[in-house]
Amino acid sequence: MTSIQKILLALLLVLLIAVPPFLGLGWQNALINVLISSLFALAFNLLNGQAGLLSFGHAAYFGVGAFAALHLMIAVEDGLFFPTPLLPLAGGLAGLVVGVVAGYFSTMRSGVYFALVTLAIAELFHSLAPHLEGTFGGEAGVSSMRMPWMGLGFGTIIEVYYLTLGWVVLCGLALWAYTRTPFGRLTLALRDNEQRVKFLGYNAHYAKVIVFAVSAMMTGVAGALLAISNETANYSLFSGSVSAQVVLQTFVGGSTVFFGPVIGATVFTLFSFLISDLTRSWLFYQGLIFVLVMLYAPTGIGGVIGHHIRNRRQLDLAKIGGPYLVALGGGILIAAGTVFLTESAEVLFGQDYAMARDGASGGFPAYDLFGLSWSPLNPVTWLVPLVLLCGGVFILIRARRVIDRLWARKDEATTADMTVGAGGKE
Amino acid sequence: MTKFAFGAAMALGAGTLGAATSQAEPLKIGIIESLSGSQTSTGRLYARAVKYGVDRINAAGGFNGEPVQVTEYDNAGGASEAADKFRQAVADGVNIIIQGASSAIAGQLTEDVRKHNLRNPGKEMIFMNLGGEAMELTGDKCQFYHFRFTTTAPMRITALVNAMKKSDALGSKAYAINQNYSWGKDVQAAVEAAASEGGYEVVGEVLHDVNKIQDFAPFVARIKSAEPDTVFTGNWSNDLLLLMKATGDAGLDVTFATTFLDQPGNIANAGQTALGHYIANNYDNAATPTNEFPEAYKAATGAYPIFVEGHSTFALGQLQEALSTLDFKGGDINVTDIALALENSVYQSPLGPISVRKEDHQTIRPVVVSKVVKGAKYPADGTDMGFETVEVIPGEKAIYPVQDSCQMKRPNA
Amino acid sequence: MEFAIISTLNGVTYGLLLFMVSAGLTLIFGMMGVLNFAHASFYMLGAYVAYAVSSIFGFWTGILVAPIVVGLVGMAVERFLLPRVHAHGHAHELLLTFGLALIIEELIKLFFGDFPVNYQMPEALRFSAFEIFGTGYPFYRMFIGAVAVIMFTVLWLLLTRTRTGIVVRAAERLPQMAEALGHNIPIVFMFVFGTGAALAGLAGAVAGAFYPTNPNMGIELGVIVFVVVVVGGLGSLKGSLVASLLIGLFSSFAVGLDWSIAGMFDVVGLGDWARSVGGLLTLELSSVSATIPFALMLIVLLVRPAGLMGERN
């Protein structure tokens, strides 16, 4: 880590500590979610980014961690002495144990086969959990309550926030430190050339099991933090959508950069916090963002930022800043056009509109969107998104050409860093 | 939980949240429904009905000198997302939480409300449960601030058994096929319990995975080999549709006694197969003696109330009834007083009176038993089929005894 | 006996439906090494396209148009989207198709709503094929099975008996060599992907009229189809046929069997002990029949990752 990065991180930490008390309860809660999903994504990416193993079933370890923490919480409620702030240890331990077993088997395979093994394991948990009421509490789940400890009530959201922050920072640093150890380096070699690792005399399988277990342990801690925050957990934590969410976040954030997953987790969590009550199509937008990132910036947001940081000395901000702003403008136009079309479709194909049509005896009455009234039969209604989209695409293509030229000039100067390639423009 | 821990938690909660505003605040209602994700359909119906109910309260002058406010929260069908939205609702100062589409989420929310009320005395919240029918919500998990404005498995099954027996549709052999989770098990238990009253023998029972089975033909084969007259099922959504289609395709001659056949899309999808089968539910348009309520609803929302919309509107009507007995004179809203008023409220629904049982906050309510017929008064899903009322079972006849597991802790008034 | 025969019939027809969906997936994987997460979405898309078309032009037009539309969508995906991420490896291709699956599902909800749509088979097809033990056996089930059998035969003949098939197989084994011999490999790949998607679309169009057509049908079937393809051996057409039938038969028979681990303990006299332990030991097979395929997939992946009929590991 360079000193600039260290300073930035320290600054971020200070903000995370100092600002939340002045925020509303809603934002405090959103930040808790950001922190938890960040840790989840970091833990997931240890496996993916470090060892090159793509897991489609990390919900299993997240859920196991959550349930373990809850059972400990219940024991504490019943009088067991255990400090509340240390509850995530239970999640970590459970994640570790399950991770060792699951990891032992799943790392016997690689590539697509590995992904499928992890998927199958998570599906087993998901389909068996509701039947095992003793452990997972049926479909209603297990519920408990945070107990006060040493004068701390843990009744308010801000207390939970600080508890979460502490654990996430601690685990995040531990994960980062792990990548710096000789063993962490070895896992990186596993990703790049497993054969060579074997020739060096290491047992590649055991090494993978260890990475898997560490990843599962940290995922368990994240699950435990969610359990502490929610005070309940049910079997839906094992569902495919939980596994999918962490994959989306990690790759949108960028899996090749250590803090990339944190960016993705932050973006998606805040996106759902801000958007999910506004539009019913937010899952569509989320999917769209993911696919666009995969297509145009396969290294993710973090990868693009990293690419710029690495090349900052060769880049002339004064020259490239302008085209970037233009490109951003184009992107905003395209986004506006897409949102307009999507929301219109949502209205026009919705039940309420069908009723409105019945009311207007089969005609096409006007509908309200963004505070204005639009008539589906008026060409202006469709001209607006069309102009937005075409204009946006035109501007974006023009800007991209300029940007490409500027980057090409830079590349002539230095041929280093070919990893990102065309990824830096979107 | 130990007594000590309980007290300590309450004391600390009280300490941390002292600053209450003394302004005249409107009553705030939060709908936490699945408005995106896979169970969206039902969530949106609940939301629409609640809004209609609130509009009526506001048309009558609102409450506490202000219009009642409603906010929708999307829980995307997940319990942990619901917990998240609950905290958002707390942050927004919501007084009454409403949810209906999922038992699991109801379980989550009632616990959230219980914990919130323990920690924040004086800032309590009420949970109006419009659709969570799991027995444990008024059993193990019963609590003072939770009210259930819908039936439970024994109420629906008792009603079905009574009405079908009276119209000679029950037969002497019954089969129970249900989803393998609390609701399905509740229905199965209720079918067993009602056997002697209905004079039938349970010739077979099966519990299957929830919404995972694509092919119900094997289950139909199993039902067939037991040769029942009536098949009781609490299945909903795909599990009901697939089951009925498979039965129809196999030409099996049984009568289905269902609970969620009125879910939108079911009648259209099942087609002719649905004819002649029975359903017990909270409300049906055809059961109202006058057209007043369905017509008023249609005038306001554009369509007749379907599926859960009717009884959800009644729940809001009951709230209106309770609110009308209270007057905070523009001052702070005391949610505990609202809860106490709800306990004493009786709502005269078009189908009969609905009241709250104080011991477990289950509503004592009429249950409608209907049959799918052609040329119904209110056709379903744009088909020519619909429901014809067989009998409206009054609340006192449908209700079951309070569960022993309910140990409700009342507020110290 | 009655139970066994009916269960076998049901299992075989359900298995054939599974095969219809998984055939395209296995074809694509075998050729291009791409595990297409969006495959089940193509199945759903087929059902919805068929529904939309058939409501105007009739059932058979719908059945005909749906695979063509879905095939074109598949070709577009292969031609315009997959190459963009190809350089980043199979993981990114997997992720892209995964993202597409999310988008397709949400788009369907946007245009067709969340409720199941009213997609029905024509009344002319709604009759019993034959009577067995007093109940009719629906003709449409036989129809689904027949479509699957025809599909398998045509595909198999196409791949093994025609020149096109030889080129396709050559493109799979040694793409460079095939290219050097003057075959346009990208076009071959595009058509294979399109065919795979079209098969899923056809399956959706045919099955959607029998099972409800709703926005969850893709997810619900998707995972099972993965199981089929893995158990059969990724890329093996014969394998996925065998695995489809196996899983179809299994889910059919499991329903009637109230076996549990505790029941097995009865044999050695420990049944009561097992029941007192509860949990996993007392779960009945019939209630967890949807779980078993995953366990099967896990075992196959660990013991014989090439699957029943796969050639390569």
UniProtKB/TrEMBL annotation, chain A:
Asked if the Swiss-Prot or TrEMBL record annotates the protein with the keyword ATP-binding, the reply is no
Mind telling me which residue stretches traverse the membrane in this protein? 7-24, 30-47, 54-74, 86-105, 112-129, 149-178, 206-229, 235-252, 257-276, 282-305, 317-341, 380-399
Main location group: membrane
A Pfam family that the UniProt record links to this protein: BPD_transp_2
Its placement in the membrane is given as: Multi-pass membrane protein
Task: Tell me which UniProt keywords the record has, alphabetically.
Answer: Cell membrane, Membrane, Transmembrane, Transmembrane helix
Keyword Cell membrane among record annotations: yes
- Where in the cell does this protein reside? Cell membrane
Domain of life from the UniProt record: Bacteria
- Can you say what this protein is called? Branched-chain amino acid ABC transporter permease
State the organism named in the record. Answer: Thalassospira povalilytica
UniProtKB/TrEMBL annotation, chain C:
Keywords, sorted A to Z: Amino-acid transport, Cell membrane, Membrane, Transmembrane, Transmembrane helix, Transport
UniProt topology in membrane? Multi-pass membrane protein
Q: Where does it reside?
A: Cell membrane
Cited InterPro entries? ABC_transp_permease (IPR001851), BCAA_transport_permease (IPR052157)
* Keyword Transport tagged: yes
Primary residence: membrane
Q: Which domain of life is it from?
A: Bacteria
- A Pfam family (short name) is BPD_transp_2
TM annotation in the entry: 12-35, 47-73, 94-112, 139-159, 187-211, 217-234, 241-265, 285-303
Give the family this protein belongs to, as stated in its UniProt record: Belongs to the binding-protein-dependent transport system permease family. LivHM subfamily.
What name does the UniProt record give this protein?
Answer: Branched-chain amino acid ABC transporter permease
